Amino acid sequence: MVRLLLINGPNLNRLGKREPHIYGSDTLQDLEQQLTSFATEYEAELTCFQSNHEGEIIDQIHAAEGMYDGIVLNAGAFTHYSYAIRDAIASVNVPVVEVHISNIHAREPFRHVSVIAPVTVGQIVGLGFTGYRLAILALLEKVKGREKTWKK
């Protein structure tokens, strides 16, 4: 069975309350339940983790090597300035797909740059919760060797 890790970063615990016009009204718990069921349909096991603390996210990325076949990561605001998370991703041999609920490229200028994108296998933005499902599908393709052109 394919094992995937979902990491949600800062403020994603506020889903459903924080700026619902941007992020929707579903909660983090709703998201995790939906994605766990979705992964199960594809014979994958999904472990969910959320933290507002950079070091905890880094620890999860490090621990993923040898435990998980892929990581779905919404690093929240850390996306735009955390070279530490970027370096953690680069240091492990686990493919990571970056996900954002909103289209970061259509928002404030400081959100347009992702420092983690260069070390991920792909980035999905602006598709709401659907982006997470697409990331799961992409990682399943990667793990099963169906996508030979991916870098990591």
UniProtKB/TrEMBL annotation:
Q: Which residues form the active site?
A: Y23, H100
**Record has Amino-acid biosynthesis as a keyword:** yes
* Catalytic reactions on record: 3-dehydroquinate = 3-dehydroshikimate + H2O
Q: Where does substrate bind?
A: N74, H80, D87, I101, S102, R111
* Record-linked InterPro entries: DHquinase_II (IPR001874), DHquinase_II_CS (IPR018509), DHquinase_II_sf (IPR036441)
Pfam families found in the cross-reference section: DHquinase_II
Provide a Gene Ontology MF annotation, just one: 3-dehydroquinate dehydratase activity
Job of this protein: Catalyzes a trans-dehydration via an enolate intermediate.
Q: Tell me the protein's name.
A: 3-dehydroquinate dehydratase
